[in-house]
Each structure stands twice: as C-alpha cells, then as structure tokens.
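In keeping with the milestone schedule agreed at the kick-off meeting, the structural modelling team has produced records for the first pair of proteins. Each record is given below as a sequence line and a structure-token line. The laboratory manager (R.T.) confirmed that both were archived under the project's standard naming scheme.
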Amino acid sequence: MKIIHFLTIIIALVHYSYGSTVPDSLNRTKNDSLYLIGIQEYSQAHYENATRILSSEIPESLRASTSFYLGLSYAALNDIQNAQRYFREAVTLDSSNISYQYNLGLLLAKIGDIDSAIGVYKKILKMDTSFFPAYQQLGQLCETWLKETVSYRDSIWSRLLAYRPNDYVALYYHGLMLFRSNNPDSGIVCLKRAIEQDSLFYAAVYDLALRNLVRKNLDEAFYWYERALRLRPLNAKLFSDVGSFYEKAGKRDNARTCFMKAVNLDSTNAMYAEQLGLIYFAFQKFDSAAIYLKKATLLSKDNWTYYFNLALAYSFDPMRSTDHAIRAFNDAIDAFDLPSCANVYSRLGEFLQNQNKYAEAKKCCERMLQIEPTNVEHIRSLAILYREMGNTEQEKKELKKYLDATSSDSTKTESRKQIKQYLKYLETQNKQK
C-alpha cells in the first residue's frame, strides 16, 4: 500500500506587522475615528460590527488598511467572496505591503486557487527574500499539490533553512528531499531534528516510523508508531495502519488491539471490521471472526471478499451449520465480477465436496469451467470430484482432457507423468475386474 503523507495547511488569517501598526489597546471615546473603532471591533471578534463600521466613510489615506481589515473581518465570517474582494482591493491600493499580499495568498489557498496563491507567495519573496512565512506556505502548497519541479521544491526548504536553521517544517521537508536523493541516513537525522523542535509534529513522527519500517529497523519502527498513536489517539486509520504493521511483524496480540481500537473509533468502516475479523481467524476464533466479517458485509454489500472471508469463517466454525457457509459463498458470487467468480466457485465446490454434497459441488466445477474453460486445474478438480463420487469413467475422461490440454506445457511434466501412471493403474484394475 502506498501511503502519501503531507502536512495539513492550516489557514490562519493573521496580520503580519510590516511598517506601522495599530496600538493593541484602543480607548473607545466619542473622539475615536470610525477607522480605529472598526479595528477595535475586529480585535474583539465583533466581526459584523467591524464590517459595518469600516464600510462607512473612511479617509482616503486609510483606504488600503481599511480594505485589509474588511477582508480579515469577512474572512472570519466565512464570507469568502467579500474577503477576497477586499484583500485584492488592499493589494491594489498598496502593492508594497507584504501583509496584504500574504493574507490574500492564504485566502486563495483556502478556496483552492493554488496556482494564484503560489504566484502571490513568489511575488512576496521577490519583495523580501527573508519573509519566512511565505517560504513555508509556498513550500507546503508545492509539496501538497506537486507543483513545480522537485528541485524547485527542495530549493524552497534549503533557502528557508538558511534563514531559520531550526524551522521544523523546513527540516521535515528537507528530510523528505534527502530520502528522494537516496540519502536515508541524513533524511532520518533531519526528521529527528524536526521533532526536537516540535515534539508534537505528527507528520515527522509518522514518517520516521514508516522510513524505519522500510529499512527493516523494526524496533525503531515500533517506537515511532507507538509515539504516533499517542499523538493521534482518536485516529482510526492510524490504528488500522499500525495494526497491519504489527500483523506483518508477527505481533498478533498487538495487531488485534489496534484493529479493535480502529473499529471502536469508526464503527462504519468495513475494512476495519474485516481486519479485526481476519485477525480473529488467525487466532482460530472463528465465532468472533464471523461476527466482524459479517459486520463488514453489512457495511459494504458490494465487496465479494468480505462475503468470501465470512464463508471461510463459517466453514471452519463447528458450531455453524453448513448452510451459513454456503449462503455466504453464494453472496460472494453475487457480488463478484464474472471473471473472478471461478475462485469462489472453487472454494465453494471444495467445501461442498468435503460435506459430501457432490451434486452441488459438481455444479460449482462446471460453473468454474464455463467461466475459465482453459484453466486446466478446474478440469483436474472435476476429475477428483468424480473420483470421490465413484464415477471412474467420468474421472478418466476428465484426466484425459487434462493431458490433452497440457500436452505442450513443460511446467506440467510431473503432474502429467503421475496422471498417466494413475490411468494405467485404473486400466489394470478394470482388466482384473
């Protein structure tokens, strides 16, 4: 499974100070200007009041700043259309103000206009090459949406680290760049440095677990996965992923704990239910396996694998009647795409054969051959079934069909030899009779 990780871009519309600023504390008196009163209303989160007051007659000299605060207020009210309108107006009136440009870029990224947002951040960096928030936003947008070339994206983080050598976001992405450059040791060092700067930096913790897993450093992978779980104790997918890791490492008890947590956190996800069912199956607790595999079929009625696995759980559970397994196998067939149905018919036929239900098993074998007429293993399965049924003549016919179908297949040499010897044995037995 290919897993792609990236940082979530948190859009926070903030006013970065450039040049003159408005005092933090303003006294509201009758002598205050509408402009200052409007900004005070904004600072106190009275956004509707701020938009009403700032929309009044404001001196032309304050027009750009007023538009900017109107943009901030409308953004806080989630009125994106007006927020964009006033941010653009502020930028038009004062294109040299980086704070106006930066907040416009944030808003454009939030509404999904990624290319325009990237253009804004590039413009900011031409105005001031040391404005690190623009590097962060530009870099994350390029990484998340795979914009620009890899070398350009790498250059963003390298330049940011030149200004801020302990910037944890830059360290993280620089580490990923080192992995891309086949320098995993340095990449891991960078990710660890990022976590030293911010111990709650989940993306770096998760990636460290994944990178150590790829490098087969299982003890390290265990450590970082457990740390990731502590950071995201309510993330069902994370518990599912870590459970799969534990299962592959042979730590089934840990896997079961993780899968159970995933199911409890998200009871509507069929895959999590199936994972828990299959781990119970591995423990040979077929009754528990059936409970969760049945839950998976109810949550995703079109997925044949859930029905198929449920049928297997039923077939191994001595407390269940054979009808349960047969019904689940048939449900799998109904949900299956036709070319793949042969596999289900094969397992159902085998199950029915073991239950001495030969007529039904024969129908499964015939259906297998209808779907995959050139599959010689289906021919052989039918021959074995006829042997179980005591129908020697039909058995011999199917074995001869197998020999004809594999006459030019060098991979079947040994099986052909055994079948020929068996057919001679049958002929000898027939002559003796």
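The second protein of the pair:
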Amino acid sequence: MDNHREYVLETNRALGDNVKRAARHLERGGLLVDLLPHKTTMLIRRPLSMSGSVFKRLLASAIQPHAGSLLLFSKYSGRCWICSNRGNQPGIFVEY
C-alpha cells in the first residue's frame, strides 16, 4: 500500500513569483514535489503521516500573502479546493 497521497497543484502568484522557489519551500516542509511541463503546475505527494491541517497551512504559505491563490486537485478522491489570499478570508480552502 502506498504511503503517500498525490495532488496536482496549480499556483497563481507563488512565492516571489517563482514556482521553483515555491517547490523548494514545499520540499523543505516534507512534501515530494515534481514540476510539471505546464509552468505553474506541480505534482505533490503528501505522506499519510502529515495531517491535513499541516498540509493546507504549508500549501497556503507557498503563495504570496496578499495576492496569491492556488487550485488543489486530489488524484485519490477527485475533490478540488481553491485557496485565495485575496478578499476577507485569506488562506481558507474552499471545496468545489
């Protein structure tokens, strides 16, 4: 049985407007990250030992604090979340 869950992450306004920098940030946080050919897309592998709240907090910290956003797609469940740091609820993951 696999001990990771896979996600596809699309970022808008990553840290420093640099997707590679955001990927390094996520790797230091304990995730396995592969950059995909589409410029702002990454394949993320989250260890099952990492809680969902820690995972979401780490992802939210990889985008710009006032203008960044991300779209997270779970390959396991097929669920999709959007996190935007604009508006009155920055850093909140909303499921679509």
